[in-house]
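Moderator note: this is an archived Q&A kept for reference. The question asked for a predicted structure of one protein chain; the sequence and the answer are reproduced below.
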Amino acid sequence: MDSGVWLLSLLVALSTVSHIRSEPILRLPSEKAISSDYCDSWRLAVETNNAGAWERVPVNCVDFVAEYMTGERYRRDCEVVGNLSLAFARSVRMVGDGRDAWVFDIDETLLSNVPYYQEIGFGFEIFNETSFDTWVHSAAAPALAANLILYNELKELGFKIFLLTGRSEYQRNATETNLLLSGYRNWERLILRGSSDKGKPAISYKSEKREEVENEGYMIHGSSGDQWSDLWGYAVAARSFKLPNPMYYIP
């Protein structure tokens, strides 16, 4: 079977299973079911959401993900998304009353946590909230270069920037410090999870917060994030742009 037919068969199988099974499909029947020869196909299934919910990078694909996230291909992929986002932004007919908005996620969208994930196997280890919190408070995450450019261009075009993150309110100071150190300035609002948001799925929490922004009279023209849960739900943007991320999945 040639690679093209194999890829098509994989995607069809993953899509079918995702509709009839609720558990992460990449654990069926085992992580070793994904051959290292086809990790690029696995990444495609992840990015198109055909893989559904998944818990960690398959063991045979850890080296592939490490090479992708630290190499030129990830940088180029992010640049393509950034360029398409900017092209759309330039085509927007602005309301012009200071209510034209763009919403950004933070992790793997404005800031890159690749240095952190280098230390924990690029997504092979199960997420550890304590160690990630330590990383957040170090305020050491670098800017994702393509979106720093996009961010500044959007400001020049007159968009109001809202930062909507799954990080918690107690991480506000560290997050603001990290953003400033990485070159981000003059956002309209940084929205973090408060006590009433604890335990909510990301797609529900972020939809609620976008709706609050819209209820204040803002028009959300664009939205950028690395997870589908950053972009889907309700009160969605006119156009949404997904950054690649094969390291982890957030429902």
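Archived answer notes: The beta strands are 100-104, 160-168, 189-193, 219-225, 239-242.
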